[in-house]
Known about the structure:
The protein is α/β, with parallel strands linked by helices and 274 residues long. The protein has seven helices and eight strands. It has a six-stranded mixed beta sheet. The chain has a two-stranded antiparallel ribbon with strand order 1-2. Helix 4 links the parallel strand 6 and strand 7 (219-221). The radius of gyration is 42 Å and the shape is elongated. 30% of the residues are buried.
Amino acid sequence: MSIKQPFQRNRVYQGTFLAYIDKNICGEVLFLRRKDTDKKKRLSALFPSIEKIKWLAALILLAGIICGSYTLSRYVAGEQVKKREAAVIIDPGHGGQDPGKIGVNGAKEKDINLEIALKVKKYLEKEKITVMLTRKTDEGLESAGASNKKIEDMKARVHMINEVKPRLVVSIHQNSYQTEDVKGAQVFYYVHSSEGKEIAESMQEILRMLDPDNKRKAKANDTYYMLKRTEVPTIIVECGFLSNWEEAEKLTDEKYQEQMAETIAKGIMENLKK
C-alpha cells in the first residue's frame, strides 16, 4: 500500500499574518511579495515628490504675501505722494531784519507780505488744500550768526521748497518804483520754465478781476534767486507798488488784503486743477 506523503509546507510571514502555504505555490507567493515590495518602493519614491509639492506651494504662498505687501506699500506710498504733490508753499518775502520795500506811507513790505500770505493759507485750507509757509512770524530763516543774513535766508527758503517738492510755490511781495504814478500787480516767472510761464499768465489774468484797469502782463525773469534755484514751478506775485500812494493805502487795509488773498487763492486753485 502506498502511503501518500503530506504536502511539504513552508511558513511565510507577511505583516502580522501567519500562513501555511503549499510548496507548489510558494513561488507565486514570493512573486506577490516582490510586487508588494516594488509597490512600497514606488510609494516611498512618491512621498518626496509630495513633500516637494508642499514646499513649492508654501513658497508660492509666501511670494504672494510678499508681492501683496509690496503692492500695498506702493499704494500707500502713492497716496502719500499724491497728498504731498497737492501741497502749496506760500512764501512771504523778507522778514526779521529785512523789511523789504518801505512804502510812501511808512508801511513795511515784510508785514504786508505776511498778512496776505496768512490769508491765502486760510482760503486754501478751507478747500482742503495742504499749505506750508516759509515763515509764519516776523522772522527771517537765517541763523543768528550768519555773515550774510540775506543770502542764508534765501538759501533756507529754497532748501525747504526743494525738500517738500510741492506742486506750486507762490512768493508774495510788494513792488516799488522811482516815480509814484506806476502801479498794478504783476506776476514773475523763471524765463526757462514753461510751466511757470503758464501759471504766471493764468494768475495775472485772475488778478485782473480785482483791478480791471491793470494792463500789466506776466513777466519772465532770469535773475531772481527764488525763481532760479527752486526745482518746482514757482511764481512771484508783486501785489502792488508801495511807491504809489493809492496802492500803498490799499495794501495796508485789511479788507483789501482779504480781497487780494482770496484772488491769489483762486489763481492757485485754478492751476492745481490742471
